[in-house]
Amino acid sequence: MNTKGPMMVAGLGNPGLRYAETRHNAGFQVVESLGEWGSISLDKKKFDAEFGRGRMGGCDVLLVRPQSYMNRSGIPVQKLCHFFDVAVSDLVVVYDDIDLPLGRIRIREKGGHGGHNGIRSLIEQLGTRDFSRVRIGVGRPEGEQDVADYVLSGFSRQEKEIWLRVVERAREAVSCILQEGLSAAMQKYQS
């Protein structure tokens, strides 16, 4: 890990109340939960992103929510990485994944975009696939429902209970990454 700049946790989502409680805003929800838990207010704005800076698990950390809409997430994240001297190896990206069942978490050191437009944007802007990811399962739509409509929809009452637990578990997983490293988090929190 880089010792110059802070660690960055970037949660992906779409800005605005219309999207706040949707599946596609998993990353935003986890970063908000981290901020509340770690008393880091996401009240700063720069490069089309909301962020906060503080200490978690003994390390300097930036919590970031890009406000550029999902398919352009890479632009503000790249600019903040450059501005704050964050190494790509010190970037953790949290986002929704339709290929995982609702409630599942997958942690990876690097990888492709898997069809996720936010991750595609990050890879394009950062010029690498080598950043850590915490993927939050939101499941696939049933029947003929359009995937875009599905990820921009909210949760049923039954799903909401599962969702609140997975957001808390993902927050704990990210905290573990910051304190103990990626491999420890992979062992403890993948489901």
UniProtKB/TrEMBL annotation:
Keywords from the UniProt entry: Cytoplasm, Hydrolase, RNA-binding, tRNA-binding
Record's catalysed reaction(s): an N-acyl-L-alpha-aminoacyl-tRNA + H2O = an N-acyl-L-amino acid + a tRNA + H(+)
Residues carrying the site annotation Stabilizes the basic form of H active site to accept a proton: 96
Binding residues annotated for tRNA, in chain numbering: 19, 69, 71, 117
Top EC class of this enzyme: hydrolase
Catalytic residues, chain numbering: 24
Family, as annotated: Belongs to the PTH family.
GO molecular function annotations of the record: peptidyl-tRNA hydrolase activity; tRNA binding
Name used for this protein in its record: Peptidyl-tRNA hydrolase
Site (Discriminates between blocked and unblocked aminoacyl-tRNA) residue list: 14
Lineage: Bacteria, Pseudomonadati, Thermodesulfobacteriota, Desulfobacteria, Desulfobacterales
Single GO cellular component term: cytoplasm
Superkingdom of origin: Bacteria
EC number annotated for this UniProt entry: 3.1.1.29
Subunit structure: Monomer.
InterPro entries: Pept_tRNA_hydro, Pept_tRNA_hydro_CS, Pept_tRNA_hydro_sf
Presence of the UniProt keyword Metal-binding in the record: no
Signal peptide: none
Pfam family, one: Pept_tRNA_hydro
GO biological process: protein quality control for misfolded or incompletely synthesized proteins; rescue of stalled ribosome
Keyword Hydrolase appears in the UniProt entry: yes
Localisation: Cytoplasm
Role of this protein: Catalyzes the release of premature peptidyl moieties from peptidyl-tRNA molecules trapped in stalled 50S ribosomal subunits, and thus maintains levels of free tRNAs and 50S ribosomes. Hydrolyzes ribosome-free peptidyl-tRNAs (with 1 or more amino acids incorporated), which drop off the ribosome during protein synthesis, or as a result of ribosome stalling.
